[in-house]
Design goal:
Blueprint: H1 3-34, E1 39-44, H2 48-64, E2 67-68, E3 76-81, H3 86-104, E4 110-115, H4 121-130, E5 136-138, H5 146-155, E6 160-162, E7 183-187, E8 189-190, H6 201-205, E9 209-210, H7 213-225, E10 230-234, H8 251-259, E11 266-270, H9 279-287, E12 294-296, H10 304-309, H11 316-329, E13 334-341, H12 348-361, E14 365-370, H13 388-409, E15 417-425, E16 432-437, E17 442-446, E18 455-463, E19 467-472
Parallel strand pairs: 1-2, 1-3, 3-4, 4-5, 5-6, 7-10, 10-11, 12-13, 13-14, 17-19
Antiparallel strand pairs: 8-9, 15-16, 15-18, 16-17, 18-19
Helix pairs in contact: 1-2, 1-5, 8-9, 12-13
Length: 474
């Protein structure tokens, strides 16, 4: 990013902080009068990008003086939406109907919608006509403006809509509120340039923009000083990090720099596009044991023919060869993936290729999706869309294959002692703690809650498939 853009970003951050202070004064006065704190509630749909965005939104709202509540009966309710598949949209519409009714019995309630769905013109039209009680609509590019939009809404009686098609802005240094004290997500890039033919993300998240390494490192250092030991680097395609920077830097280079921050003990990242996963990255992962033994490597399809129409830019063979290179360098790595079934034109032979890759790789786990038509993407207008019943039947077969693969993979580390980051008290049994292994699997073991946020040694006594039961090694 050039100097000029940097200055614009700093000015914008200062402006927004100013508005937050103005609103805080106003809210404090109201609270004094009514004796009631103003509450907010955020519902987050979709991926980790959205979760991270919600933390930023939460930071802004807290700065203004709102306090968080876990019910939707709040003074400010926000849905951070996802549109990657049709069912993500339907869930939002369903919930909105309920929220509209709730608003009638809650004077002064403000309802805001943001996130990926709002970047679609047809969605916004539908909300304007059928859900007129919505107060504020904004998108994925202007979250940093929330305080300003809220101020505008409070000073007028109209719906405030602010949607940007794209942006050059990356506004740094605004407040944000982390969900966990000991682990945190860090955006390293925004947007996506890959245009996989089924995917709406590039249209709703804009072009790929990498953050400056200095900004990322400073943010992580500050988090580390604040008690964070594990970070998750976020981007739609982290392997292409840094390509558009003034001084280009590779993702592997960035990982090396982050690895030097003392108090950071674990580094995770998501998502890796197979086409850009470099040998340099494999080397860095192999040599740096702060980098977790887990790679999420979306396959999407095992058929080279389908992959080409999906615009994924790798083949079945190159994917398998990549898996081999990764496994021979890092034998204890856990591999997970995303797969779509029923992509337009997918034949039984194509599907057999997907099953074949799944068998050969033996993924530790996988997210499987039935293809969902997204208006505006090239695949939506392709001929020979696959019948739903056919897709469902393939989906079931795929799921069985995945399950048998993960059953085989599970238990690999049984009877070994592993480092575990303790995350919480077990939700079912308060005598137990729940923690995460480097390879992302969970382990439950007896222990005291004072260990939450610490990395401890645990003996993995028994594998239960998707998790272990263990005991603390003193
Ligand atoms: N950037 C990541 C994925 C982001 S979306 C990557 O490239 O791997 C998460 C997953 O949703 C994708 O990996 C894909 O499997 C699935 N997905 C995306 N668009 C979809 C669609 N139209 N129908 C079904 N699944 C889809
Ligand atoms: Fe979508 Fe492909 Fe970009 Fe992932 S890489 S977000 S699947 S377009
Ligand atoms: Fe959904 Fe947007 Fe993420 S569409 S998957 S929330 S980038």
């Amino acid at each position: 990013m050039d100097k000029q853009t940097t200055n614009v970003n700093e000015l914008e951050a200062a402006k927004q902080l100013n508005i937050m202070n103005e609103l805080k004064v106003r809210f404090d006065q109201e609270v004094e009068k009514t004796g009631k704190q103003k509450t907010y509630h955020i519902e987050t749909f979709g991926c980790q990008m959205n979760s991270r965005d919600s933390e930023k939104i939460s930071g802004i709202l807290k700065q203004i003086g709102y306090v968080e509540t876990d019910t939707e009966d709040a003074d400010f309710v926000l849905y951070n939406t996802c549109t990657v598949r049709e069912n993500a949209n339907n869930r939002v519409y369903g919930r909105l109907g309920y929220l509209g009714k709730l608003k009638k019995s809650h004077p002064g309630m403000i309802i805001a919608l943001c996130g990926c769905m709002m970047q679609e013109a047809t969605v916004v039209e539908k909300i304007k006509t059928s859900y007129r009680f919505v107060d504020i609509i904004f998108g994925t590019h202007n979250i940093f403006k929330l305080a300003e939009l809220l101020q505008t809404r409070l000073d007028s009686d109209r719906t405030v809509i602010d949607l940007w098609k794209n942006t050059e802005f990356i506004v740094e240094n605004l407040p944000n509120d982390r969900k966990y004290s000991f682990k945190a997500g860090v955006n390293i890039m925004f947007g996506c340039n890959n245009f996989c033919s089924y995917c709406i993300v590039p249209y709703v998240r804009g072009r790929e923009r990498s953050r400056n390494p200095q900004d990322i490192l400073e943010e992580i250092k500050a988090m580390a000083d604040d008690g964070v030991v594990e970070i998750m680097l976020l981007g739609q395609n982290v392997n292409s990090y840094g390509k558009n920077l003034e001084t280009p830097m590779s993702f592997a280079g960035l990982l090396n720099e982050i690895g030097k921050i003392d108090k950071i003990e674990r580094i995770r990242f998501m998502t890796s596009h197979p086409k850009d996963l470099s040998d340099e990255l494999i080397e860095v992962m192999k040599d740096n044991d702060k980098i977790c033994r887990h790679l999420h490597l979306p396959l999407q399809s095992g058929s080279t023919r389908v992959l080409q129409i999906m615009n994924r830019r790798y083949t079945k063979e190159s994917y398998l060869a990549l898996v081999d290179r990764i496994r021979s360098a890092i034998p204890d790595i856990s591999l997970t993936t995303d797969i779509i079934v029923g992509f337009p034109g997918e034949t039984e032979e194509d599907f057999a290729e997907t099953m074949d890759v799944v068998k050969k790789v033996g993924f530790d786990s996988a997210f499987t999706f039935i293809y969902s038509k997204r208006t505006g993407t090239p695949a939506a207008t392709m001929e020979n869309q696959v019948e739903e019943t056919v897709a469902m039947e393939r989906f079931d077969r795929l799921l069985k294959e995945i399950q048998s693969g993960s059953a085989k993979a599970a238990g690999r580390d049984e009877h070994t002692v592993q480092k575990v980051l303790v995350e919480e008290i077990n939700s079912q049994n308060p005598e137990l703690l729940t923690g995460r292994l480097s390879n992302n699997l969970l382990v439950h073991f007896p222990g005291d809650k004072s260990l939450i946020g610490k990395i401890v040694d645990v003996d993995l006594q028994e594998s239960k498939g998707f998790y272990y039961m263990g005991s603390l090694v003193k």
